[in-house]
Amino acid sequence: MTKTIVNPYDVRGKVNYDRLIQEFGLKSIDESLLNRIKKYTKELHPMLTRKIFFAHRDLDWLFDEYDKGNKFFIYTGCGPSGPIHIGHLVVWYFAKWLQDKFDADLYFQFTDDEKFMYKDLSYDEIQEWLNENILDVIAVGFNPKKTHFIIDTKHAGLLYPEAIKVAKKITFSTIKSSFGFNDNTNIGSIFFTSMQTVPSFLPSILKKKNIPCLIPHAVDQDPHFRLTRDILPKLGYYKPASIQCSFLPPLTGSEGKMSSSESIKGILTTDTPQEIKEKINKYAFSGGQATLEEHKKKGGNPDIDVPFQYLKYLFEESDEKLNELERNYRMGILSSGEMKKYAIEKITKFILEHQKRRKFAKQKIPNFMIKY
Ligand code: TRP
Question: How many Å apart are CA 218 and CA 245, to the nearest integer?
């Protein structure tokens, strides 16, 4: 078995999320917290009730502040190094829900500097991905009046004076142990986490008062924000709160995470219905039995069935329908072919709607850029 590794630059092996909560020092999202969230949002997002977002830091504090009238902003981001796949969409569609429910400002960072330093891609290639990825973020449907894009290289003049204040508080040895770096790591990568920290307090600077921050993100980003949380009080700001999700499984099964650098690419936001169908039919790992006869007798396993997992993460909004699929699959009433067919239908519908918005995204870019 491969060793489990979870950090921003490497996710490998079968992730045990309970153990990760222990190791990272996270809090799980329990029933009482869900009830508290529901008090504000009236209904709970399926990603909450299904425990896709399974852990947090300081949400209780965040809502205590909220109750006192101290509203929070949301901060999340994208590292532009390839096409956007459905794994990215999990966090972004959830962030949109949060923005709508709390009528919150959202600061969205594009870390083109990060991807340039970490990936074997030229600066121009990164810029091309940046331009593409921006369209997908706009297509999610964020509120243009309340959403502020920050591009690290473009807004360097705004970020850099703050990033150096962060960098001065972090030692090389801390960085090495946080991200698994060694003496051969390029020096840009060593500095980078300072840039990812800045948006968590930038609004406090721009608005000249301390504003609480909530970061929705996939759990692999936690090492960045652990450092952020150590440093911000030293600079006079609140520690950011976070809400963290597990990884959408890659097509081929349930180890690691979907990734745009994988040889069998995940399902992309630019895929045609035909491509979606082919990817699911050809590559999606099935939790069904080898033959239909055996399947009817023994039933399938939805926990490892990739099409079912995709429905659960993002594409089946109805709990009732999801439970029915799960039940029938376990009992062998629903075949893996039928599960795939249903997943293809739902994913295609979702992606086509995303693409409709994506088509009109380009002209909206200026509205989304941070003004300062
Ligand atoms: N580093 C992230 C990535 O590689 C991008 C990112 C920047 C981000 N700021 C963030 C992700 C805040 C989540 C929350 O994708």
Answer: 5
Beta bridge partners of 253: none
Would you state the structure tokens that stand for residue 218, as one six-digit string?
A: 């996939």
Other C-beta atoms closer than 10 Å to the C-beta of 125 total 16
Strand 241-245, strand 213-218: pairing? parallel
Digit-coded pLDDT (tens) for 355-367: 999 999 999 999 9
CA-proximal residue: ligand 1, atom 1 (nearest): 79
pLDDT band of 253, cuts 50, 70, 90: confident
Q: Which residues line ligand 1 (CB under 6 A)?
A: 8, 75-79, 109, 111, 114, 196, 215, 217, 221
Q: Are 125 and 347 in contact (CB under 8 A)?
A: no
Residues 128, 131, 133, CA angle at the centre, nearest 5°? 105
Give the Cα separation of 85 and 63 in Å (integer): 32
The structure tokens listed for 139 are: 């297509």
**Residue 258: per-residue pLDDT:** 76
In the predicted model, what is the mean pLDDT of residues 131-155?
98
- Which residue out of 76, 137, 247 has the highest number of ligand 1 atoms within 8 Å of its CB and is therefore the one to mutate? 76
- Locate 366 and state its tokens: 């200026």
| CA-closest candidate to residue 267, choices 309, 300, 302 | 309
For residues 2 and 64, give the distance between their C-alpha atoms in angstroms, rounded to a whole number.
42
What's the rounded mean pLDDT across residues 142-147? Answer: 98
Which tokens is 156 given?
Answer: 């360097």
Which residues are within 8 A (CB) of 287 and not within 5 positions of it... i.e. 6 or more apart?
300, 301, 302, 303, 304, 305, 306, 308, 329, 336
Residue nearest to atom 6 of ligand 1 (CA): 77
The one-letter code for the residue type at 135 is L
Distance CA 285, CA 254 (A): 8
- The H-or-E segment that residue 147 falls in is strand 147-151
| SS3 label, residue 216 | strand
Residues 125 and 206: beta-carbon distance below 8 Å: no
Report the amino acid identity of residue 107.
Y
